[in-house]
Design brief:
Blueprint: H1 3-6, H2 14-28, H3 33-49, H4 51-55, H5 60-72, H6 78-98, H7 105-120, H8 127-143, H9 152-175, H10 180-193, H11 198-214, H12 218-238
Helix pairs in contact: 2-5, 3-6, 5-6, 5-7, 6-7, 6-8, 7-9, 7-11, 8-9, 9-10, 10-11, 11-12
């Protein structure tokens, strides 16, 4: 009934924010397995009905959704993991269709950023469960007949490979968590490897700053924030 109002300004309006926040609240707060099945079904319909809100204009909705779905991908309940993996795959596929089968770069980026944030927030527990979810997503891509002739399956494979790289770097960080200098070195190299992606570089610099503050190294933390400010300034200047 309110589709026109919800889609005004490509979905970036107070009404859409309220509706989306309600959907997201179901993922943020623990639900029963049965309730979650309906939540995921509702979100699938929501993405299909309002693709422009996720894939056009501002990035907020896509980013927030990726973060919460990825948290569900590490759930101890296998049905929730399966549902979350399917929803993440649907998000990528709809993004690909939205760009007339050219790319799903927006979702790709937001997933990597969300993984990096989850690691920084120490919310990405259950590594093997997460690996299982990545495998489910890859299997979806390989068995999706209408997508066979497109670049989509290889792009999905590339994304899961990148996520594994981030996870491996994180495993190394875990080993060195008692050695702050080594830990920061690893984070710095990870931030540098994303030099071409300002959003990701910012995520890792923020994470480095948090560690510096925790260790009482305030001048180093300030350097990280100056770097972030420079990144943002340079990006805005280019725009």
């Amino acid at each position: 009934a309110f589709q026109t109002q919800l889609l005004s300004n490509d979905g970036h309006n107070p009404l859409m924010k309220k509706v989306f926040d309600i959907h997201l609240a179901f993922l943020k707060n623990g639900q029963s397995e049965a309730a979650l099945k309906h939540v995921f079904a509702s979100l699938r319909a929501f993405i299909s009905k309002f693709p422009s809100a996720f894939f056009k204009g501002r990035v907020n909705m896509c980013a927030a959704l990726c973060y919460e779905i990825l948290k569900c991908c590490t759930s101890k309940v296998s049905s929730t993991r399966n549902e979350a993996s399917a929803l993440l795959y649907l998000l990528m596929r709809n993004n690909f269709e939205f760009t007339k089968r050219r790319t799903f770069l927006r979702t790709h980026l937001q997933i990597i950023i969300a993984v990096s944030q989850l690691i920084a927030d120490v919310a990405l527990s259950g590594g093997t469960r997460f690996q299982d979810s990545l495998l489910i997503i890859n299997n979806f891509a390989n068995s999706d007949r209408p997508m066979k002739a497109t670049a989509f399956p290889s792009e999905v494979k590339d994304l899961t490979k990148r996520i594994r790289t981030v996870l491996m770097a994180t495993a190394q960080m875990k080993e060195h968590e008692k050695d702050p200098e080594m830990l920061i070195d690893l984070q710095y190299s990870l931030a540098k490897s994303y030099a071409s992606t300002p959003e990701l570089r910012k995520t890792w610099l923020d994470s480095m700053a948090k560690i510096h503050v925790k260790n009482g190294d305030f001048s180093e933390a300030a350097m990280c924030y100056v770097h972030v400010a420079a990144l943002v300034a340079e990006f805005l200047h280019r725009k």
